[in-house]
Amino acid sequence: MRVAVIQMNSRDDKPANLAKADRLLAEAASRGAELAVLPELWTYLGPRDRHAQVAEAIPGPTSDFLAGIARRHRFSLVAGSYLERVADQPRFFNTCLAMTPDGEIAARYRKLHLFDVDVDGYSYRESTTMAPGREVVAAELSGMPVGLTICYDLRFPELYRRLAVGGAKMITVPSAFTRETGKDHWEVLLRARAVENQVFILAAAQVGDHPPGKACYGNALIADPWGVVLARAAYQECVVTAELNLDYQEQVRKELPSLEHRRSDLFGF
User: Fold this and answer.
1) Which residue from 45, 174, 197, 207 has the highest number of Cβ atoms inside 10 Å of its Cβ?
2) 241 pairs with which residues across the strands?
């Protein structure tokens, strides 16, 4: 199965970001991708005081746009994330859509863990404009059970174990990881989640500077169930593809059956 992860430098120009995503997804399709993954907040990455302007309902214009792309290229699409407006809710959800090649919404995942931290002199407060989701979500895409996560979720291994125990063989991680944390933690965490759960990890990413004066680490990558990095993005906007060997995944799970050895009697799952 050939998959693609997209690396973007989204900024505070939503129409330009949509056009860029369209072009990069077309490139992914031309390279034979059966499933493609966009990064976190790919429609808008900029000052929070404009979140109310760019957030939208689902279904809505952006989900329609994504459905058209999935149908045109006949691939499954994990549509990174964008801000979802819900009636009577003061804050927005950071929402990832999983779409079938027919353009149907197979699943909707709302980011569970919000990035409220202070690091290297920068303050991040996602909860100012975003509300946390309440459900662990997976989708069946191109015949593959796919777990859905977003960025900061990567630091919570219990989510990934729950997805793996639920049958996920691949977990997507659309992200806008900060440059400060990414340089030390990004690859370590991604490969750990792959090894612990014997899953393929598909991590799309934001890269480079974005307003207001912040920066994302990039390094979008695809890792296999042994933790080997199959493909990695250069520090630029691009498409990264890899061929997933599902027989190899079954071999890993058979020869090192750690998922079967887990103490569910102690830990609940």
Assistant:
1) 174
2) 4
Catalytic residue list contains 151? yes
Q: CA–CA separation, 82 vs 61, rounded Å? A: 12
20, 34, 40, 187: the catalytic one is 40
Of 111, 126, 169, 187, the catalytic one is 111
Contacts of 188 (CB under 8 A, 6+ apart): none
Q: Which residues of the chain have pLDDT under 70?
A: none
Q: Residue 102 belongs to a domain with what CATH number?
A: 3.60.110.10
Total domains, the chain: 1
Of 149, 130, 131, which Cα lies nearest the Cα of 139? 149
Task: Give backbone dihedrals phi and psi of 70, rounded to 5 degrees, phi first.
Answer: -60, -45
Please give the residue range of the domain that contains residue 143: 2-267
- Please give the structure tokens belonging to residue 118: 């202070």
- Which of 202, 200, 244 has its CA nearest to residue 221? 202
Catalytic residue among 20, 151, 169, 216: 151
pTM score, two decimals? 0.97
Q: How far apart are CA 63 and CA 69, in angstroms?
A: 10
